[in-house]
Design a protein that fits this description.
Elements lengths: L1 H42 L1 H12 L6 H27 L4 H15 L2 H9 L6 H12 L12
Helix pairs in contact: 1-2, 1-3, 2-3, 3-4
Length: 149
Amino acid sequence: MIYVAVQIRQNSSLIRANTDSVNAASVIAFNNFFTTTASPVVQDASFADIFHRGLSEPDLLSPSEAIRFQSHLQTVFVAFDTGFKRMRSGAMDETHWEPWSRQIRAWMGNPAIRAWWRNQKTPYSEEFKAHVQLITSDDAKRPTPNESV
């Protein structure tokens, strides 16, 4: 009986360690995925200018610039949706997802992004759309002017 109890305890410890390892790998993979997704703003000065103008004066973008700006937003939000799905499936702990949720709230604090979101929701899961609605519907949780995208 003691032998079985020890085996169960060891097995439980191994399962916890494996779960922690999978969670850490998922967080690292998502962080890398998001960094790659967001990299055009950092790596391409002309796109950084388009992105900045898209956030502040989207109506002044040329048609091709508007497509680039909107496509980038779509790519970033697909990345957010991917992270959200990882969290919902248990592959990412909620504590690791929370900073990304705050980041979404900060992004949605920008009027241009909110306007884009209202018109471009189709590629996202219903659960993710509900999550965005939930975190942006509470005025107390809206980003302050000090928070940035």
